[in-house]
Write the structure tokens for this entry.
Amino acid sequence: MNENVKKTLRLVYQLLVTVALIGAGLCLIVACVGIYQSGDRPFSREAVAAAVGGIAVPVYAALALVVLGFVLAWVLPQKETADKPDLSLPTLRWLQQRADLSGGDAAGITRLRNRRRLNTTITAALLAVGAVIFLVYACNFDHFHRSEINSSMIKAMWILLPCVGVPFAYGVFAAYDSRACVTKEIALLRQCPQTAAPAEGSAENVAWLTAARIAILLIAVLLLVIGLLGDGFKDVLTKAVNICTECIGLG
């Protein structure tokens, strides 16, 4: 079989299995919400069986596609080539340092670079907007009632899902698009005249990167401490134990 046909089949399979797994995950989430809302004893055997039975087709389809992946890997093995070009970001940065853009397609390279930056900016903006929307909702304690904790958490999850799902969906698209941009940009940079590579990053840049990592670590530790002091984890732990024991019939 032609190598291009094999490559097309692999790409189609990757898209199908991605869609199938995301769909199966969404079906499981919807089923869990339905179980919560099914009555006084939501995790009875009957309620769980009815909910799981309704999503059997998409879940089995996703599992079948995963198994099919092993079959395709055996039937259509990927050809390994010793001269396969390196299309990684370090290679791109190395070529950017050495390439003389005046002797190549500078406009095309700039356009691809701006497209990658736009993808990153849009993904970060969507994450920031989603985080702000959910934090505004979560910080309003009127949305949460101890007497109706189930319905309160379900409503919160319906707010959280689009706040996370939209950035995730665009992030998947941006990853594929940026990968294509990197491939094209490397090809254009290889056509440019090459100059001597400049020195590695300065000590200031290394120090700035280290400071940023330490700051992120400290913020993460601070958020963990705030969560522990708030005693919210006790309610989550109690609810998790109750759900697990009810689900397996011990509650």
Remarks:
- The chain has a mean pLDDT of 79.
- The helical segments are 3-36, 45-54, 56-75, 89-98, 106-138, 149-190, 203-229, 232-247.
